[in-house]
Design goal:
Two copies of one chain form a homodimer.
Chain A lengths: L5 H15 L7 H8 L3 H13 L3 E4 L5 E4 L8 H9 L21 H5 L3 H18 L3 H11 L3 H11 L1
Antiparallel strand pairs in A: 1-2
Helix pairs in contact in A: 1-4, 2-3
The first copy, chain A, binds a DNA duplex through helix 3.
Organism (chains A, B): Actinomadura montaniterrae
Pfam families (chains A, B): Rrf2
Protein name (chains A, B): Rrf2 family transcriptional regulator
DNA sequence: GTTACTATACTCGGATAAAGACTGTCCGAGTCCGTACGG
DNA sequence: CCGTACGGACTCGGACAGTCTTTATCCGAGTATAGTAAC
């Protein structure tokens, strides 16, 4: 049970796109430089964000990526779902119906698996907690500790 | 982000151990037969439960596994932690400190990463939901839909 | 009849391969910009 | 001077390897048991 690092990359990149405040689309190489990440692989993650509709891509010269909507309308759940996929982390394989379970009445097997239900309940709490936090909240938390973050970002990108 | 099927196996096996109600330890092969699972691999998972202190193992003839404590005192969190390990699912790699972050004041980097904090908050909700559910609760939920489960299990194992 | 010993068979435990997923990389299709040319 | 067509370069998008975790399997060390023999 491990969450891929792509989630971390995506969240930071989305914040960065907002802080940069550029009118032009930002190409992969530029974003990757900001975190010293391998550009081709970051591009792969950004494609997932495009498919999920979190960013829009522009092809051709002066192309790149742009936020599809303001940070207030992007939740952490959106980011995780975009990178990790929409399927549940716990997947019930119905082992209860094999072996001993073959002797159980069909009515019992028709009810959902209690173990699966318990796991899903916890996963729902996780998803809810993620959905309650927008990237705007995260951005605000960063600015609370480092109010000059936007200025720092823009100054860095002006030089690089 | 996928939870290994070992968690499902472990939860069902712990319930089964309780329902069987045998005085003698139950060997791997017997448990595996009840779910039609590969015995050697199930044994591996059971070893993890031993290390976590959820079951006790007895070597030698007539050996096997036994519940270390009643279901009331085993939470779903215990099961997940025993199989998947105690480390957090989301691990912050601090990419914020690379590239642009190198220009940030040290005081800003001393504060915890806001993205990491958001992810941890959700994961905490997940762990809390798991810890609130004991295996006794799960067992009760099963018996609500199939009150005869213990009898069915014992009858099956008497024949096999 | 009781007790101690020995051999046996059974069990767990960790070390050993195979498969799948994640991480990382590359090159081609498509698009936009800048330029040159013609009107 | 303005509009248009063309060349070029840049960007995204998907197809292609490497590495690590997870899944699956096996065999050896250790132990309780059952039988045996001695007392």
């Amino acid at each position: 049970m491990r969450i891929g690092e792509g989630v971390e990359w995506a969240a930071h990149c989305l914040l960065m796109l907002d802080w940069m405040g550029e009118d032009r689309p930002v190409p992969t190489a530029r974003l990757a430089a900001g975190f010293e990440l391998p550009p081709p692989y970051l591009n792969k993650q950004l494609q997932a964000l495009v498919k999920a509709g979190l960013v829009t891509s522009t092809a051709g010269a002066r192309g790149g990526f742009r936020l599809a909507r303001p940070l207030e309308k992007i939740t952490m759940m959106d980011v995780v779902a975009a990178i990790e996929g929409p399927e549940e982390a716990f997947q019930c394989t119905e082992i209860r119906s094999r072996g001993v379970g073959a002797d159980s009445p069909a009515s019992a097997l028709r009810r959902p698996c209690a173990v699966s239900t318990a796991m899903r309940k916890a996963e729902l709490a996780w998803r809810r907690a993620l959905a309650e936090q927008t990237l705007a909240d995260v951005s605000a938390a960063v600015k609370r500790g480092a109010p000059e973050i936007e200025e720092t970002v823009r100054a860095w990108y002006a030089r690089n």
